[in-house]
Amino acid sequence: MSGLFGSRGFTNKTRPSAFLRSILQNGVGRPVKQLKRITLKFCETSQHSLYARKFVEEHLIDFASRHPSVVIYALPETEAFPQVCAEYLNGREEICELNKRDCDDILKILETFADRSGVEIVRIRKDFHTDIPSLQGEWHPFLNFRSYNIVNKLDWTPKLTNAWDPVGKPWEKCYRKHELHKLENRPVLTYEEKAEKPLG
Amino acid sequence: MLLTTRIVRDCPKRVASAIYWLNKKSPALSYSTNVGNSAIRTADENEGRPLRWKRVWALSMKRKKEIEGPDPPKPRSTLRCWNYKAELSAFQCRLHLNCSEQLLKDAFTEPLPDQDDNAESLSDYSDLQDCGRKFADEFVSHYISTAFPKLPSAGKQAVKSFLLDESHIAYLARNLGYEDLLQCVNFPPSDEVLCCSFLASVEAINRSGGPVAAGRFLLDFVIPQLVGKDILHDIWKPNDPMSLLVEELKKQSQPLPEARLVRQSGINTVTPVFFVALFSGKRFLSESGGESIPLAETDAAKQALKKKYQISINSKVAPMGHSVDDEFLAKLFEPLLGLYTENVNVKQNKNISVQP
Fold it and tell me: SMART domains, per this entry (chain A) (predicted)?
């Protein structure tokens, strides 16, 4: 089985998957049935097409009258295995083998084809889709802090600093506000003195 | 006959397949029920797994296909089975149309390239598409001015050119089944041809069912392209939203917008965030964030414009589909019909200026 992205994989990650979507915003305006035509191929005489022939004789016209927007072609071909090919508005074709299926199964298959859009069946990542995920606005960290400081106008001038200038008081940020007095008379130690001192 | 059945049942597959071919070629031998057995299949049915004695040939054919690439696309009418009349009636049923067959057939016929103006014997979409284009233009502009009354003319023009863009309409036509029914000179049909065909079909509906039917057709297929799209960010994309905002405020004689840096975070990192707020005098207009201060300011201007033109997420959605109520329909179709319909209850609103 090959999907849109190549051959079969063994895990959900490697098998093809898609997000939920509809074709052309289908439900917004008038509803358009996505199934264009159905081609029913079967053999006139063989055993394997027995149920297909029975379906064509008894149930096909009923099906056709229920779905007038679908064109149905019945193709009898000698020694052809029974198969139904459904073509959709987005250009895709789906073929289903009707060998060893009875009339009820065939009817179910056709009804399923009629209800589907032509999108390939792959694992759907989310059951929902929305173009507007948030109505009141998404949360961001500044949302609930309502106090501004807007006295200063927007400053467009680029602030240039010399990279080689010493950054004054480099350790200020590492101290709590009430412990800043410890920075005032910091002893300058040599490497050996630091090694002897206790840690912390 | 009995002999053949026993051989077929008991002997290995390749012999059985040989006997199957023998039986197929000589109709004098009558078939047994086992010959149609699904266990015995021809190479055509064994997709990807040819018969062993055909393997080399099958592999070389596969390689040839790979080298030459896929076949050029063929129009659907040349493949398998095709009944034009049935397809046309199914098309009408699918799109809930009630159109005369001859007009639709004309809409689906592309005019030949080298045709004299005198010899107009072949009916094609050339005059239909002219009228259809005008009708679509008028209807869509009227819809936009009714649905988005506060948008300026530049915005309305941008939305209209988005809705009636050639490639967008061609995409619509392709997904509504126009490509199969189209009788075109070169297959596959270009975007231009599909667009012309679509607009010609609009005119065909207009001539058969009246302007209301054609208007509803446009309302149901062309206008829902707006769904999920933001007018300012996706469709219009003005180059300088700040100047537009300045113009708007000047028109309403309000103080010009001033930007203020409100929040900032991670300035020295690779992912900084700056929040800029716009104020008109002391009145708050809008606030937005961005990766740099100019970007944030531009975005804030866009948010302010969205509020002004009432095209933000929170404002009323452009009516389409189920949300189209009688009042809006009356506003929309009044210039087409020239009178209010009896069945519709319309509030007499004297402030509406309806432009045909």
Answer: L51_S25_CI-B8 (SM00916)
